Amino acid sequence: MRIIVCKNYEELSEKAANIVASQLTLKPDSVIGRATGSTPLGMYSKLAEMNKSGEIDFSDVISFNLDEYYPIQKENSQSYDKFMKDNLFSKINIKPENTHIPNGEATDPIKECDEYERLIKENGGIDLQILGIGQNGHIGFNEPDASLSSRTHLTNLTENTIKANSRFFASSDEVPRQALTMGIATILKARKIILLANGANKSRVVSELLNDGINTSVPATLLKTHPDVILICDEDAYYGTRLGVDIGGTDIKFAVVDKKEVKFTDKIKTPENADGIVNAICDKINEIKDEYKIKNVGIGTPGEIKNGLIYASNLPFKGYPLEKAVSDKIDLFVTVDNDANCAALGEIIFGSTNDCDNLVLVTLGTGIGGGIIMNRQICHTKNNMGEIGHFIIKPENGRKCPCGQEGCWEQYCSSNALVKDVGEAAKQNKDSIIYKLMTEKGTLNGEIIFEALDMGCEVTKAVYKKYIFYLARGIESLANIFGPDCIVLAGGVTLQGDKLLAPLKAELKKDIRVEISTLQRNAGALGAAML
Ligand code: GLP
Q1: Which one, 124, 143, 156, 396, has the greatest CB density within 10 A?
Q2: Is 356 left (phi over 0), alpha (psi -120 to 50) or beta?
Q3: What are the pocket residues of ligand 1 if the criterion is a CB atom closer than 6 Å to any ligand atom?
């Protein structure tokens, strides 16, 4: 399934209309399957405009509607027959004899369904099927059920659908209790399908569609078996309200994101054991989920994720099924990913680099972490992708790394490596400014290093020059491998801003866009929300 996320309903309608238009350009006598409901209205009015301006021609088009209430008189203001005439057929040059809608007035509905199915076949089958989606996951009127009828059939509407559709009728009592609808197999036989969804009230079902396996209780998931389906949705339907959780060694951070707007943030101390972490996360979710109408929870955690189990050295997760443990306790969709991946996603959605499609995030902290985003998606493999701190920057006489290799990049360019190198240089140069500062303050950290640089300390300058040299070589290599639109740097040393960026840019031998994260430690929770 291909997914197109549009900024708003206007864009969604335009994209969908353009797909129909290109179908008609390629095959002017196409058989188009049509949906009713409020979702395709914008697309229908664009198609009418395009027809009026001569851009597209419907004179050879054959149209089959998905469904119709049963029983219903054609002239009833809520019949799909009337809907189609009012909203499309009266506005385009389609021949009335080429428009087909199941007959809600039929005395023998079973015969009507068989005849409808036969007619579709006789016309060569559907080339392009347009679909909306019900809040309960129905397509056409294929309601959630233990087993689904495959061909055009008479069906009972669920309470949920009657309630959702009552907005078009004077009261819910007036909504017909049955409908005639193309079956799932009728729909899946279409050569191409576009599925439209807009508005926050569709965000839950869109998540079910994308996250659930194929199952008959969300009939739209069966579309995943079709080779050519495009889901076109707006940001409201795609994102909904989400909670992001970023588990760190010290704190767990929370961020509620509605579309792309941050509505709430919070932080708690990280409990000591795995169950304590899960309970603390679930308590917070229960506290806020109703207020913010949260549908999805994304969790970022340090460590490797293998077959749903987390292995983290700094947390009590030694093969721990975090996603399952949280999902078992709350009735929401939960997704877990590596924290650096989440931070990279946060950067590309919320950061100053939100104009990029491809990005590499490099976190210069205790070690070097990273997240790789290509085409606005996190890059994953089963083999722990993104361990950029462990590519070899110095193959000969390289420093030993706890990972077992020698010469890893993080041994030269993490914030810790810088502090360690400056500390060693200071001890060998007891008359240096840095040595004086270090002994005065009884410690050494990034701030003191930059204070020494500001004071013109030659010893610190020499170490920093080397640090920048290795940093630049690493960044050039990442740029060569991934060809990102931007490399974003985050973590300890990057809080120095231009004092890092300016010498780094001067050292780079490639024209690479490098930026310092504007989100820093908040990127993880924000990105987790968008998993
Ligand atoms: C109706 C129709 C469906 C339609 C769905 C969503 O009941 N039978 O074909 O896709 O509900 O309607 P809307 O677009 O108004 O949300």
Answers
A1: 143
A2: beta
A3: 35-39, 66-67, 132-134, 140-141, 161, 165
Taking the CA of residue 133 as reference, the ligand 1 atom at the shortest distance is 10
Ligand 1 atom with the shortest distance to the CA of 66: 9
Going from the C-alpha of 27 to that of each of 51, 58, 454, the distances in angstroms are: 15, 11, 70
C-beta of residue 67 within 8 angstroms of C-beta of residue 181:
yes
pLDDT the model gives residue 249? 83
pLDDT of residue 492: 81
pLDDT, average across residues 382-409:
91
* Model pLDDT, residue 126: 98
Q: Could you say which of 4.10.410.60, 3.90.180.10, 3.40.50.1360, 3.40.190.10 is the CATH number of the domain covering 2-238?
A: 3.40.50.1360
Asked whether 23 and 192 are in contact (CB, 8 A), the reply is: yes
Active site residue 136: yes
For residue 201, which atom of ligand 1 is closest to its CA?
16
The whole-angstrom separation of Cα 5 and Cα 372 is 21
Same fold, 2-238 and 241-350: no
pLDDT of residue 365: 87
Per-residue pLDDT tens over the stretch 182-229: 999 999 999 999 999 999 889 889 988 987 789 999 999 999 999 999
Candidates 136, 338, 416, 522; catalytic one: 136
pLDDT at 43 over 90: yes
Catalytic-residue membership of 283: no
d(CA 371, CA 363): 9
pLDDT digits (tens, 9 = 90+) for 164-176: 888 889 888 999 9
Distance between Cα 292 and ligand 1 center (Å): 26
Q: Which two tokens stand for residue 399?
A: 């420093």
Higher pLDDT, 293 or 182: 182
pLDDT of residue 308: 87
DSSP per position, 267-327: EEEPPSSHHHHHHHHHHHHHHHHHHHT--EEEEEESSEEETTEEE-SSSS-EEE-HHHHHH
